[in-house]
Model the fold of this input.
Amino acid sequence: MRDELRASGAPDTVVDDAVLVLSELLSNATRHARPLPPDDSVRADWSRGSAGEVTIAVTDGGGPTRPLPASPSVTAHGGRGLSIITSLAQAWGVREDVECEAVTVWAVVGRPEFGATKGGHAPSGLDGIEGLDGFEGLDGISI
Done:
């Protein structure tokens, strides 16, 4: 992702934020969720929008709870992933696909003029993110 975003002309700060968000989302998916059937994978997608924003989405088979930011103690070894994403992203949210038994957590970085203040949480899914209904056109990988 880093190489693709740099090649597309994304600023280093946006690239760094997008890579960190992807890392946190993948970590959460592998730690807290089931893999996607039928091939036991987790899917990572990203795209760069016309305003320079980067949307990152990770899809897994869901887990026992819905992804929410935690308030870990200072000495806790984990639990900060979604708080990190909240601080870096202009918006993020969760989209559930009950038919496919899939949960997608997405985040938008690098677009300060996006409708929410930095760290805003748009829980309704991808509403309001131009061109991303159903993740059509996103480049992606399966891991």
